[in-house]
Amino acid sequence: MVTLLLPLMAMASRGPDGPATDPTHRPRRRSSPNQDGLHALGSRIEGSPRPGTSPGAGKNDVREPTFDETGLQKLGAEIRGKGKPPSHRAPKRPYRKTKRVLLTLAILLVVGVAGTAGYAFYLNHKIHRIDVKGLIDSPTTGADAGTENILMVGSTDRCVLTVQNASYGLCSQGVNGVNSDVVMILHLDPHKHSVSILSIPRDLFVPNARTTGANKIDAALYQGPSQLVSAIDQDFGIPIQHYVVLNFDTFANVVNSLGGVKMYFPMPVFDAYSGLKELTTGCISLDGIHALQVVRARHLQYQGPGVTTSNPAYWPFENSSDLARIRRDHEFLRVLATAVAKNGLANPVTDTRLVSGVAPQLSVDSNFSFSDMVNLILNFHGVNAGSAPQYTLPVAVDQNGSYLYKGGSYGDVEFPAAAQDQQVIRQFLGVNATTDTMHGGQLPDPSTVTVSVMNGSGTYDQATTTSDALSALGFKMAGVGDSAPVGTQSETVVYYAHMTSADEAAAQAVASSLSGAVIMAVDPTQITDGAQVTVVTGSQFSVNPPASGATATTGGGVTTSTSAPTTTSTTSANSGFQAPSAAVTPLQPWDPRSCTASGGEGT
């Protein structure tokens, strides 16, 4: 979906300057006929009787819309704020072009609106609406009032494709896994008039990816979108307002509708898994399938300097395949946004191809209404998509090979990096370190939070030293104990009992006091000693030191410090995990990138 939303905003940035629509309904300086027309169209599609029904018809008593030419002309006039059908020879005035651009943005975003009531109704109802539990209402008060987080997922489900494509792998041949190839969150802030993106690496190991327990986060989608939303809410404290999922066909159709995109390949590259095989360098035109091969490549090989063989099988592999793909995905979004802005969406042929190609393949949550989509465009029409911040959640990559957890093998995984993750999430959401990111307001004072600690790694006296360190930070300690180790390497999990504002905020307060491989999770069965929060320790974590002059702990017991407090810390000698990755990483020399206007290498 981000492939739709960001290009929309890039195109919208060419529209008139002006304040964003205020969701609190404070007076605006003025509204344009185009804006009024869009709002009216939203109400008409969602609230008015559908074509072919009477005002008293039942909800399900509908028939397919008819495409009456007179009605189409009237609606076209309504959208333009006029009282008569548009002339076939309209004056070529700048404001007329601007109106068409903004209208077309709404067409693309809702993937169900065109210049006709019948066509709008028809395409809007082609979008699949799905029931997603766990979505949070947008806040109405406070500094984050009106902000929204849209979870955008790229699904690997081949079996849902109407037409099977061998380029993607065939469902009939057993390629039937359902995972989230891409997990991105789009944050929209109408007050700051800002947009930002956060990517969550698909191999990140989380404690409640599934209802049955821990797994990589991309595995959550197998149990449906509600489970993925739940994992993100509970583990990272990021509230999700809307959910959008697209498949391979949706992505390819967007690119093809624009006539393809161009990317510059500084080196020949190859990926046997995604099908990418570009053996030439320079500015290359990509259709939908080949663009998909670029963004899905996570086993990339490249012919760098000094590599003389022309056989891609012998080219070197890049490191950190999961993170490298996200890096290239972010670059592709910039390229796509530029292509939309350059080609324009005011071409009726492009509009029709894009709308009709995307609508049947797009699924959104049932509460993501037509009006919501139109308001989104009206609120953010001035945003420059090319400069929107794009973050990747920092992770520590496991270098041991296949990760073992409770005797099961999970392949390549990544562990969280608590301190870095919390900093990036707050930067992404635009809040400070004392804010409850999930529900708003301030995090509770440590003295109001009761905590128990369970030794989950088997390290001698770990629960006691950790409890002492948290006590030094002001938390009320309820008790210590032991929990069966899950493996040689393990995350530290901050458990809380319920997804209520009080429990979740208490868990955030504790998690914010820890560094290393630490993550939150909801599980009332893990709560011990009547505590509000239970910390099950892992193999790689530390308790942040208290302020100077307070009591701190280290390895074997309690120590008093007056100037340079230490911290309790546990790190396995054979951890095999890399240092946490960066939130923003530059392109590598072999990565495809933008082309200049003359066909050269972009920056």
Summary tags:
seven-stranded mixed sheet, 14 helices, Alpha-Beta Plaits, 603 residues, single chain, alpha+beta
Q: Whole-number radius of gyration?
A: 26 Å
In the CATH hierarchy, the third-tier topology of one domain is known as Alpha-Beta Plaits
Query: Roughly how much helix do the residues carry, as a percent range?
Result: 25-40%
Please state the second-level CATH architecture of one domain.
Answer: 2-Layer Sandwich
Sheet with most strands? 7 strands, mixed
- CATH domain class name of one domain: Alpha Beta
Enumerate the strands of the largest sheet in spatial order, edge to edge or round the barrel. Answer: 1-13-7-2-3-4-14
N→C terminal distance: 25 Å
Kindly estimate the percentage of residues that lie in beta strands according to DSSP.
Answer: 15-25%
Q: Could you walk me through the main structural features you see in this protein, from its secondary elements to its overall organization?
A:
By secondary structure, the chain is an alpha+beta fold. The chain has a seven-stranded mixed sheet with strand order 1-13-7-2-3-4-14, with helices on both faces. A five-stranded mixed sheet has the order 20-19-24-21-23. A three-stranded antiparallel sheet has the order 10-9-12, with no helix packed on it. A hairpin with a 2-residue loop joins strand 5 (205-210) and strand 6. It is globular, with a radius of gyration of 26 Å. 50% of the residues are buried.
